[in-house]
Amino acid sequence: MKHDVILIGVGNEFRGDDALGAAIAREFDSRSIHGLKVMTESGEGASLMEAWSGAYHVIIVDAISSGQTPGTVHRFDASTTKIPRRTFHYSSHAFGVAEAIEMARELQLLPSTLIVYGIEGNDFTMGRGITPSVQSSMAELIKRIEQDVLRMSS
Amino acid sequence: MKSRVIKVEQLARVEGEGAVFIKINDGKVADVKLTIFEPPRFFEAFLRGRKYSEAPDITARICGICPIAYQMSSVQAMEDAFGVTVDGQLRELRRLIYCGEWIESHVLHIYMLHAPDFLGYEDALLLARDKPDLVKRALSMKKIGNDIMNIVGGREIHPINVKVGGFYRVPSKKELEPLVDRLQWGLEGAIETARLTNTLEFPDFETDYEFVSLRHPDEYPLMGGRFVSSSGLDIAIKEYEFHFDERHIHHSHALHSFEKGKGPYMVGPIARFNLNFDRLSPVARQIADEIGLKPPVKNPFKSIIVRSIETILAFEEALRIINQYEPPGPAVAVQPKAGIGFGASEAPRGTLYHRYRIGGDGLIKDAKIVPPTSQNQATIENDLRKFASANIDMPREQLTWKLEQSVRNYDPCISCATHFLKLEVD
After folding, report:
1. Which residue ranges make up each domain of chain B?
2. B43 contact residues in A (CB cutoff 8 A)
């Protein structure tokens, strides 16, 4: 049985701003929203593809490193937009989020909707703690995800 | 003076981040650096003052691909410190979940990270475009491994069910039964994979490595046993630090392991295979014989074949364990006490050593964790130096690819716990 919506928090809780995905996942998990399943993943691409196969609509939340100002909120609709391969560095897991999305597209294993949300990170060094610039954007991120979840589960 | 520098800033298709730097002067390799980031030293520090029972859950976060390996090495070390023995069905269950990890890690590496090199594809995506059925089969095989970890471990990426003394909960026979048909299918897939890898083209590149792995009286090594080497070493796990040490290399955050009096060494599938050929499970041995693979394997590029033989073994072992499974009590009693505990297990990438000092209060006083990739670091650099020297006139692009492939031979988990989504946005 497929869920309506899966929210997948991606990242490593011990690596500074990379804890974002897990933090957002925890937030939504605590709300027990009907129709929403919350998961956390390390970012390994093949496991992600398995994880999102359980839902029609998927939201992935991940820390982002794109050279923009830390705290910038990003949103990508991967189900409608092809992510140009050259715009993604290989993530540190060489078969990571970006690769998984494009692989799934190639194999027709994308869910109906796949949105990637993130906040531009500041510091990814080992040691717990999301930095202030990322923290200050979390409320906005949560609000935007809420809107998408409501829309997807209606 | 003519000089060339080959720099690969970010190694692709390697877990974590790594960079290779090679300098060639006047047709000779002048310098080789494999830059690795973030060994688990943070975790060693973080573990201090934590309760012994937290070690499996904390160390599981060191690696997203091989959390079970960290959990198994840590519980073995703790059980060693407290004089606790976990055997019978509990030990079989541990072996089962470990097989799950070997399957998912090996299949991922063979198909997504390594095969593209041999088949001439820049990445797995292009391989998928050309051979979607092959890749889909690989993903299905990998999923079986993840599902084993899910059923026995409670959650795929950071299994929460493993603890010192056993498990929090053991599965019923009924819960494991659905895996049987899929494991049979997966075993067939693994056999085909081994035959496929045997048809690939391998560079002529052999070295007399010092191979190191665990060895056990009757099993192909996954957990416990003794440390052995191809030059005759045979020691208890607790003697590891008398024979192996690490030194800090200035250009890398990682530590280079070396065997005292010997130098660099190799851990991982090739080492295990060479030192435990007589312990292979029946079908794994049969297929190894069929494709003519036997020790000593000295060509690191052939790690892909060895990994596929080990994948066969993992499927076989999982089936054997499930077929004889009778649910035990979830755990044996554990009474923490002051002492030092030593543990080692064979992660997919090689031997993983843990050592803990525990206080009378059950808190961790200090920890030492030596991952397989740290242990292979010096050997990988040697390979790069040797390969570059032997192929000094190869066109730059081709040489760069082959050197990257040389690193990927070791399936290195360079910065196991690193992740963030990197974007370049116009």
Report:
1. 41-386
2. 14
Cβ partners under 8 Å of residue A86, min gap 6: B424
Is A143 part of a structural domain of the chain?
no
Number of Cβ pairs < 8 A linking chain A and chain B: 150
* CA–CA separation, B153 and B146 (whole Å): 10
Query: Is A147 part of any domain?
Result: no
Kindly give the confidence (pLDDT) of every residue in chain B, 426 residues in length, as a single tens digit, with 9 standing for 90 and above.
567 776 665 555 544 455 677 888 877 887 887 765 456 778 899 999 999 999 999 998 887 778 899 999 999 999 999 999 999 999 999 999 999 999 999 999 999 888 998 999 888 889 999 999 999 999 999 999 989 998 998 764 455 789 999 999 999 999 999 999 999 999 999 999 999 999 999 999 999 999 999 999 999 999 999 999 999 999 999 999 999 998 877 665 556 899 999 999 999 999 999 999 999 999 999 999 999 999 999 999 999 999 999 999 999 999 999 999 999 999 999 999 999 999 999 999 999 999 999 999 999 999 999 999 889 989 998 999 999 999 988 888 888 888 888 888 998 875 443 333 333 222
Which residue(s) pair with B51 in the sheet?
B363
pTM for this prediction: 0.91
Q: Which of A47, A103, A116 sits opposite B156 (nearest CB)?
A: A47
- What is the secondary structure of B189-213 as a DSSP string? HHHHHHHHHTTS---S------BEE
Look up the CATH number of the domain holding residue A47. Answer: 3.40.50.1450
A99 inside domain: yes
Nearest to A41 among B15, B157, B421 (CB): B157
Nearest to B314 by CA among B164, B53, B112, B107: B107
Residues of the domain holding A25: 3-127
Question: Which run of H or of E encompasses B351?
Answer: strand B350-358
Nearest to B411 by CA among B199, B102, B86, B164: B102
Tell me if the bond preceding B296 is cis, omega within 30° of 0: yes
CB contact under 8 A, A94 and B417: no
Question: So what's the ipTM on this one?
Answer: 0.85
Q: Is residue A145 situated within a structural domain?
A: no
In angstroms, the CA B23 to CA B1 distance is: 13
Could you name the CATH architecture of B41-386?
A: Orthogonal Bundle (1.10)
